[in-house]
Amino acid sequence: MKDIMQRLFKLSPYADLNMEDHPEDLQGWSYDDELFEEIILKVQPQVIIEVGTWKGASAAHMGRLVKKHALACKIVCVDTWLGSPEHFLVSEEFADRREALRMKNGYPQLYYTFLANMMRQSLQDIVIPLPMISMNGAIILKAINVIADFIYLDAAHDYASVSADLRAYWPLLSQNGVLMGDDFLSHKDVTLAAHAFAQEISVPIVGKHSKFVISKNPSLTPRIVLS
Fold first, then answer.
1. What is the DSSP letter of 134?
2. Which residues of 173-186 are buried (b: 16+ CB within 10 A; e: fewer)?
3. 89 is in which domain, residue-wise?
4. Residue 216, φ and ψ in degrees, nearest 5
5. How many CA atoms lie within 13 A of 147 on its CB side?
C-alpha cells in the first residue's frame, strides 16, 4: 500500500520550499509534556494523528521521540493553519498572537512557518500536513483507511467543536490506541466535553492540568490521577 504522503499528495508539500522565506518560530504551549513519551513508548505507534498543530512544536516533539526510539511512524497533522477567532479578535495586549499568523494580502502564512519548522527539524519524512478543517480531515483519513495508534487533539476550545472532534477521530483510533487532548482543566468547555464523551462511550478518563487521556485499551492508559 502507498505511503500516507503518496496517498494524499502527488508532490511532497515540502518540495521547493525556501526555508529562508519563513523565519524559524517553533513557539507552542505544553508541547513537551512527559505524557507524550510515556504514551509513545507504551503504544509504539505506526501512525499518529495530531488535530490542531499551530507552528508544529508538539509535532516536532513527537517526531523527535519517534526518531529517538527508532519507530517506523508517520505523524499526520490536521489543521487549517488559518488561526482561530481568538487570533483575530485579540486585544493589543495579545497582538503577538495575530502577528504569528504572518498575514500576507489578508491571508495567514502560518502553514509555511510550520513546513519550514519541520524541515529545520529534519522531519519532512515523518510529519505529513493535511491542511483541512478537522471534520474534513477525518473524512479524508477514513476514506484512505488511515488508522492511528495515538491521536492528539489540540484544536478548537468550544464545547461543540471539541465534542465533534472527539466523535470524528475516535473511530480512527486503533483497538490498542490512546487519545490525548490538550487544554484540559484550563478551558471549561474542553473539560466538560472530554468528560461527557468519556461517559458517552463508557471509557475511563484520566487527566491533569492541560492534558486528558482516554484509551480503547485501559491497560495502556497512563497512571495519572484525575483532578
1. H
2. bbeebbbbbbbbbe
3. 4-9+42-157+168-183
4. -80, -15
5. 7
Residue 62's nearest CA partner among 101, 82, 83, 34 is 34
Across 49-58, 79-88, 114-123, 185-194, least confident range: 79-88
| Residue 196: exposure state from Cβ atoms within 10 A (0-12, 13-18, ≥19) | middle
**Residues 148, 45: contact at Cβ < 8 Å?**
yes
Domain assignment present for residue 104? The answer is yes
Q: Is the dihedral of CA 58, 105, 137, 90 positive or negative?
A: positive
In single-letter form, the type of residue at position 13 comes to: P
Residue 113 included in any domain:
yes
Residue 142 lies in a domain: yes
| Residue 97 falls inside a structural domain | yes
Residue 46, exposed/middle/buried by CB under 10 A (0-12, 13-18, 19+)?
middle
Q: Whole-angstrom Cα distance, residue 65 to residue 61?
A: 6
pLDDT digits (tens, 9 = 90+) for 106-155: 999 999 999 999 999 999 999 999 999 999 999 999 999 999 999 999 99
Q: Give how many domains the chain has, as a whole number.
A: 1
Angle at 149 between CA 146 and CA 151, to 5 degrees: 85
Q: List the CATH number of the domain containing 71.
A: 3.40.50.150
- In this structure, the number of other CB atoms found within 10 A of the CB of residue 27 comes to 13
Q: What is the pLDDT of residues 81-93, one digit of tens each?
A: 998 877 777 656 5
> What's the distance, CA 222 to chain centroid?
19
Cell (9 digits) for 132: 483541512
| Residue type (1 letter), 187 | H
